[in-house]
Amino acid sequence: MSITTFCTTDLTVKRLEGTVICEDVLQELGLFYQGVPTKDVIWIVPQGALLQLNGGDLRRIADFVKGIVQGREEGKTAIVAESTLEFGFGRILNNLGEAKGIPVSTKTFRSIPEALEWLGRAALPVELNNEQGTLAGEVGASPISAAR
To answer: Per its UniProt entry, which superkingdom is the organism in (predicted)?
Structure first.
């Protein structure tokens, strides 16, 4: 399991690899909110990445975000789910966020272009496509393709 992070000044893209557990997601969220979080975030969730999560884990994630969301009240989080299971989990997180009054808009999509449209972006930043975004604090990230 790994979570790769690509950052520009106003967008963070997180790509899950392998199967994650709740603690992995909580740790990644904690790291994101430690610094100055970007307004917008895209989580790319491949098929099978959330197989180890359950409803209780999703509630823990929503509660954790509610407690640390300061500074992103006007932000948006797009979840791009590659399979039906991940899409369903994303929708549950959307609903939990609304029910708990989390002030960040969250929506789940089946493709990166749909997520970009909702975020009001024509494409991923050129820095990410040209391997110049920040990857875990270092320059030289792998490109992310919007045509998946």
So the answer is: Bacteria
Average pLDDT score over residue span 49-74: 93
pTM over 0.90: no
> What is the mean pLDDT of the segment spanning 48-71?
94
Residues facing 17 on adjacent strands: 2
96 phi and psi, to 5 degrees?
A: -65, -40
Residue 18 is predicted with a pLDDT of 94
Please report, as a single letter, which amino acid is at residue 77: T
In a domain, 146, yes or no: no
What is the domain-level CATH number for residue 58?
3.30.750.24
DSSP 118-146: HHT-SSS-HHHHTT-SEETTEE-PPP--S
Asked, for residue 135, whether it belongs to a domain, the answer is yes
